[in-house]
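Retry 2 of 3 after timeout on previous attempt. Resubmitting structure tokens to design endpoint.
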């Protein structure tokens, strides 16, 4: 059975200050964002009716917009409230939450100073981003051909729509070849990230992860680093060359959609789904579902 297209689903979307029926949340074909990628967005997950790291995500949305030279007309607190309203309106407790802000159709051309800034928040039921079996056996990743750009050539600290164009190309290329995703290098040839998730490696009980100087320092990434350190694990953020992957024993990716998912293969390199990866997966699960963790402990 084919999935229902996103523009034909039931429910409500918060759009420019009010909830509207899902089918009525529309934009014109001459919207600036469609032609020039002048849009920023966030991805969040709700667990048990609570949106994880809600305020932190909306703070980043504001930061992303400022980097693209526009201002979101709603405060972080107003966006927090709106996201909760959208979650309740759609009668969901387990959900993906997508805020997006974009330049409208009032002006066409590269310049966009006179466009209206629109904001929408959609909520839907979205299960595991990857095949659930990957939590046990690990993902297979190809190595992408496109590279994350030099920070002097793109607004890399913004979660901007345009930065994901090469991610879509690489994910399609990887899936056609039988992989789940692609690992992207940066313009220097260093390991960067997957198409929508940060990457970590394990070597001799130490975590190694690329320094996020040309890609997003993910909120889930920072969360995992924090509780890894609480476990007493050493975490090294540094430049990692692809050939170093031969010496790493474990690998996993992190992100709002991906959560914490082990990796078994990246191109010619192989990894075990080991104890450290499993412990961090368990720690993350306990963090997002503390009630379940308490019940399990009891």
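Retry 2 succeeded. Sequence:
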């Amino acid at each position: 059975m084919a999935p229902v297209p996103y523009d034909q689903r039931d429910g409500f979307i918060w759009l420019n200050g009010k909830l509207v029926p899902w089918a009525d949340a529309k934009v014109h074909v001459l919207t600036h964002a469609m032609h020039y990628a002048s849009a920023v967005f966030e991805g969040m997950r709700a667990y048990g009716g609570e949106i994880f790291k809600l305020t932190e995500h909306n703070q980043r949305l504001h930061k992303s917009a400022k980097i693209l030279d526009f201002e979101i007309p709603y405060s972080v607190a107003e966006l927090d409230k709106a996201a909760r309203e959208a979650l309740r309106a759609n009668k969901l407790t387990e959900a993906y939450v997508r805020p997006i802000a974009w330049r409208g159709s009032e002006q066409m051309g590269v310049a966009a100073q006179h466009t209206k800034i629109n904001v929408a928040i959609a909520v839907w039921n979205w299960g595991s981003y990857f095949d659930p079996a990957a939590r046990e056996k690990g993902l297979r990743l190809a190595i992408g051909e496109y590279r994350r750009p030099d920070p002097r050539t793109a607004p890399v600290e913004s979660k901007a729509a345009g930065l994901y164009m090469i991610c879509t190309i690489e994910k399609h290329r990887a899936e056609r070849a039988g992989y789940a995703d692609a690992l992207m290098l940066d313009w220097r040839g260093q390991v960067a990230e997957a198409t929508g998730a940060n990457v970590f490696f394990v070597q001799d009980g130490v975590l190694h992860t690329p320094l996020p100087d040309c890609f997003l320092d993910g909120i889930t990434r920072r969360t995992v680093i924090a509780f890894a350190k609480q476990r007493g694990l050493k975490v090294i953020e540094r430049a990692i060359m692809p050939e170093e992957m031969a010496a790493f024993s474990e690998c996993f990716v992190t992100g709002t959609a991906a959560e914490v998912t082990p990796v078994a293969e990246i191109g010619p390199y192989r990894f075990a789904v080991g104890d450290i990866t499993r412990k961090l997966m368990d720690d993350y699960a306990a963090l997002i579902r503390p009630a379940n963790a308490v019940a399990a402990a009891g």
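Attempt log closed. The chain has eight helices and 16 strands.
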